[in-house]
Design brief:
The chain is mostly beta strands. It has one domain: 3-layer Sandwich (Rieske Iron-sulfur Protein). It contains one helix and eleven strands. The strands form three sheets. The protein has a five-stranded antiparallel beta sheet, with no helix packed on it. The chain has a three-stranded antiparallel beta sheet with strand order 1-10-9. A three-stranded antiparallel beta sheet has the order 5-6-7, with no helix packed on it. The longest helix is centred in the C-terminal third of the chain and has 7 residues. It is globular and about 40 Å long. It binds FE2/S2 (inorganic) cluster. FE2/S2 (inorganic) cluster (FES) binds next to loops.
């Protein structure tokens, strides 16, 4: 199975997220949340209006770091499930992206295979 290296686990601050972007307009960007040794990947695509969550690039969390927050209309999501708990898309969920961790390295797996069917693309970490 094709896969792509994203980053090292330690590149993501614990309790925060790191965004990655795809250059093509037709492929949503992704972001990866870290909780200790676990990671949770999602499309950067709010289910309310299908636009990016982070008005300020790379800022995905509420100030208290408890929830992923869409900066457009304030929807809040559980970081570990992606489910919207508050806001206009309550009950809907972010689209999960499978991320594998091997020896501290994060890999993108099936997602890339699915996207490859929609055209050529490459993944680039978003600069700070
Ligand atoms: S676009 Fe995310 S809450 Fe409206």
């Amino acid at each position: 199975m094709a896969r792509r290296r994203l980053c090292e686990l330690d590149d993501i601050r614990n309790g925060d997220a790191l965004a990655f972007e795809t250059p093509g307009d037709d492929v949503p960007n992704i972001f990866v949340v870290r909780k200790g040794g676990d990671v949770f990947g999602y499309l950067n695509d709010c289910p309310h209006w299908n636009i990016s969550l982070d008005f300020v690039p790379g800022k995905f969390f509420t100030l208290d770091k408890r929830f992923i927050q869409c900066s457009n209309h304030g929807a809040r999501f559980d970081p570990e499930t992606g489910k919207c708990l508050f806001g206009p898309c309550r009950g809907q969920s972010l689209t999960a992206v499978p991320i594998a961790i091997e020896d501290g390295t994060l890999w993108l797996d099936e997602y890339e295979v699915r996207l490859a069917e929609r055209g050529e693309w490459r993944l680039t970490p978003r600069p700070d």
